[in-house]
């Protein structure tokens, strides 16, 4: 069973919500329109690894899997699997541009530490899961 939740931008957000910034939504909608996938959304997920323990992942996905939470925010469909949801509660997907180019990032209030490149994080200061993630930012 999937859960579909409209995001509430501004005001108090439900604890499970994940949102997307205005600039992030603009970039995501442009990418989604070029994907050729009908009814596609942005899948946001967490996997073990990275220099801080967990690593963010994002992909264009036109599948709604059993157990997914689906959030509609600023015209973008965000899909989050049940294993990633607890680690992404209250997070905002954003798009940042810098001298190295640009890309999507996650502003995660659950992260207690992160690596310098912003692609991986730790939630409680504990060791990386399964002993992974001991390398530097280049080891993603």
Automatic annotation (TrEMBL):
One of its GO terms (biological process) is iron-sulfur cluster assembly. One of its GO terms (molecular function) is iron ion binding. Pfam families: Fe-S_biosyn. SUPFAM superfamilies: HesB-like domain. Residues 27-118 form the Core domain. NCBIfam families: iron-sulfur cluster assembly accessory protein (TIGR00049). PANTHER family: IRON-SULFUR CLUSTER ASSEMBLY 2 HOMOLOG, MITOCHONDRIAL. This is HesB/YadR/YfhF. The gene is hesB.
């Amino acid at each position: 069973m999937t859960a579909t939740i409209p995001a509430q931008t501004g005001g108090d957000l439900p604890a499970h919500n994940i949102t997307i910034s205005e600039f992030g939504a603009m970039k995501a909608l442009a990418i989604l329109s070029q994907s050729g996938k009908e009814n596609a959304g942005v899948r946001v997920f967490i996997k073990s690894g990275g220099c801080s323990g967990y690593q963010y992942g994002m992909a264009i996905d036109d599948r709604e899997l059993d157990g997914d939470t689906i959030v509609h925010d600023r015209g973008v469909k965000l899909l989050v699997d049940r294993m990633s949801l607890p680690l992404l509660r209250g997070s905002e997907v954003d798009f940042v541009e810098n001298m190295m180019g640009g890309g999507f990032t996650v502003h995660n209030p659950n992260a207690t530490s992160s690596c310098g490149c912003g692609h991986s994080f730790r939630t409680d200061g504990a060791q990386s899961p399964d002993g992974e993630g001991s390398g530097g930012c280049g080891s993603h």
